[in-house]
Each structure stands twice: as C-alpha cells, then as structure tokens.
Amino acid sequence: MLILYSWYYDAQALFNYGGAFWTAWNRKMEPMLLNAQLADGSWPKEGGGKTSSQGGKDAEVYRTTLCILMLEVYYRYVY
Q1: 6-52 pLDDT tens trace
Q2: Cα–Cα distance, 5 to 46 (Å, whole number)
Q3: How large is the average pLDDT for residues 59-78?
C-alpha cells in the first residue's frame, strides 16, 4: 500500500503544479490504474501482497479508495 499512498500524493502535487509534469504523469498513471482494475471495481494487492497483512480487512477498501481518488484528481483538491 505504500506505493499507492505515495502515488496519491504525487498525483495531487503534480496536478496542482500542472504543465508537462502533470501531463507526463497522467498519461502513464491513468491507463495503468484503469487496466489494473478488477471486474468488481476494486484493485488487486500490490506486489506480493505483503502489505495486506498490515492493512487487515480494510486493505481492499483502502486500495480502492486511493485509486479512485487518483482518477478523480480533476474534481477535488487537497490543500
């Protein structure tokens, strides 16, 4: 989950910065997230699933929430 956590804040920072940095990030990140999404709307465990034991039963909800927030960065801001 550490990767998704940092990606979420990277997406926020780059969106607010804008320009070529945001465009480059978004062109890579958006298709990657959409292609990884499972049929039930959630996202799979990262890597070998080592972090899922730390996240407990809420890990799937947390992963899905971070991915959705990254995809909707256009509509909300973190200040």
Answers
A1: 999 999 999 999 999 999 999 999 999 999 999 999 988 876 555 55
A2: 11
A3: 87
> Tokens 């959409």 — which residue?
34
Convert 16-49 to b/e letters by CB count within 10 Å (16 or more is b). Answer: eeeeeebeebbeebeeebeeeeeeeeebeebeee
Q: 57 with 8: CB under 8 angstroms?
A: no
CA distance 7 to 5: 5
CB within 8 Å of 71: residues ≥ 6 apart: 30, 33, 34
